[in-house]
């Protein structure tokens, strides 16, 4: 690694470290919701691995491909933390139906594919992280279907990182919208973030886990990225159930993502933790392949819910389970 390469990676590492330090500083604020003993560690992105080029997408060969989206994502992640200072000091706590409709219409206009609402369990919060409010607005953005079909490819990788970037920018924009309406809110960027997103989206009734550990939704299958806004609003339409649990039985019979994974990173049986949280992928096997292929995404490409409609698979499942 030459001097220029070292400088580039050092600059990126320092920006990510700044981002992480800001996230950790949230725990020192008063009346915040913090992690608990069985909360997971936040392991990605890891600034300590950036200088060696081990941490995706920070390896040097990826910078020309996703450098712009990466830099923008880091900046938006930093903005998400710093901007909490812009919250109204005494915010409203009940949103009107017209205001909620206006918020949701803006979200969809900007590219949000689905919105859900739920309470945030403490064991979803990453260790050494905190959120200001325990009501979550979960945001989903679709990943481009054509780019997914071309996986693994540079175009796929560029699209994945661009989706992270766009969703992060929109999450900050929507958080700002809530503040202008008079509500206190906090954005959580999709790249890493402050909490575990897939189980949060499941709790919001938006979909269910596949065996690859990704969220599967009726709208996009596993082709999405997830972010959240935590808001001090007490009358949001929280999810009261989840009609997508049949996906688990379907996936248990399928297993295509496991067979197609080039690094054998997807577990036949997930590791179940004391909190009920499940680990589906061995990170140490997944990331090296992701690095080598400049964005793998094979598990998304090969998923039955990518290649068939949710409705068709559900109808087939009902027939098979009569």
TrEMBL record:
PROSITE patterns, per the entry: 4FE4S_FER_1, 4FE4S_FER_2
Naturally occurring in which organism (per UniProt): Desulforamulus aquiferis
A Pfam family matched in the record: Fer4
Residues annotated as domain 4Fe-4S ferredoxin-type: 242-272
Keyword field contains Membrane: no
Protein name: Reductive dehalogenase domain-containing protein
Alphabetized InterPro entries for the sequence: 4Fe4S_Fe-S-bd, 4Fe4S_Fe_S_CS
PANTHER family assigned to the protein according to its UniProt record, in alphabetical order: IRON-SULFUR CLUSTER-BINDING PROTEIN (PTHR42827:SF1), IRON-SULFUR CLUSTER-BINDING PROTEIN-RELATED (PTHR42827)
Keywords linked to the UniProt accession: Iron, Iron-sulfur, Metal-binding
GO molecular function: iron-sulfur cluster binding; metal ion binding
